[in-house]
């Protein structure tokens, strides 16, 4: 049985909303993640890939985000009748025959690093994938990005190995990619762990 490609629609969690990314969202997204510390550990090809301004970010976004192979999402937090954009993540590389998917292209405003935002986003995206019949969801990071690699392991993913010289960084150097995955039979235990982490975290997000 093949997996089914999800329809692009908003996902609502306890504190975050994931909505299909639109071009009109890019200026707000740039304000949230267009920062040296976000690109420092390898996002977007590393520090040399940081767009100089909102216009350059819009050009970057056209080729970087997986518009054709999946669903890029905007991550926001409802505030005072509006929203605060805090980042982005995508469910893509949707192989419905072999039932494989990829959660990635993830970046957040540094103000919400080490908060519940990433945990809740991954809970929503993993649930979306597995509820549509996908068997394996991969997650990956630049091998030198120790912060992201630790966060992926903490989600409950299994380390599979390193793809050496997997892609070229924006500065021309080679990136090695650390690969992880979660399988459908592992999902109930992973989901319980993520839900437990969210239930135990009552901190307010530092967005004021």
From TrEMBL:
<dbReference type="Pfam" id="PF13302">
    <property type="entry name" value="Acetyltransf_3"/>
</dbReference>
<dbReference type="InterPro" id="IPR000182">
    <property type="entry name" value="GNAT_dom"/>
</dbReference>
<protein>
    <submittedName>
        <fullName>N-acetyltransferase</fullName>
    </submittedName>
</protein>
<keyword id="KW-0808">Transferase</keyword>
<dbReference type="InterPro" id="IPR016181">
    <property type="entry name" value="Acyl_CoA_acyltransferase"/>
</dbReference>
<feature type="domain" description="N-acetyltransferase">
    <location>
        <begin position="16"/>
        <end position="157"/>
    </location>
</feature>
<dbReference type="GO" id="GO:0016747">
    <property type="term" value="F:acyltransferase activity, transferring groups other than amino-acyl groups"/>
</dbReference>
């Amino acid at each position: 049985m093949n997996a089914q490609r999800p329809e692009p629609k908003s996902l609502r969690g306890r504190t975050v909303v994931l909505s299909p990314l639109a071009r009109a969202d890019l200026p707000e997204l740039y304000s949230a993640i267009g920062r040296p510390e976000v690109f420092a550990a390898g996002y977007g090809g590393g520090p040399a890939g940081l767009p100089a301004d909102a216009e350059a970010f819009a050009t970057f976004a056209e080729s970087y985000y997986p518009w054709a192979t999946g669903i890029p999402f905007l991550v926001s937090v409802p505030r005072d009748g509006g929203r605060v954009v805090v980042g982005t993540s995508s469910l893509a590389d949707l192989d419905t025959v072999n039932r494989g998917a990829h959660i990635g292209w993830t970046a957040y405003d540094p103000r919400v690093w080490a908060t519940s935002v990433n945990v809740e986003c991954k809970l929503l995206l993993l649930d979306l994938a597995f509820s549509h019949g996908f068997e394996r969801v991969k997650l990956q990071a630049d091998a030198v990005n120790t912060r992201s690699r630790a966060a992926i392991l903490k989600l409950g993913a299994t380390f599979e190995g390193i793809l050496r010289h997997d892609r070229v960084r924006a500065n021309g150097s080679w990136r090695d990619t650390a690969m992880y995955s979660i399988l459908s039979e592992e999902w109930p235990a992973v989901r319980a762990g993520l839900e437990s982490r969210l239930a135990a975290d009552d901190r307010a997000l530092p967005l004021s």
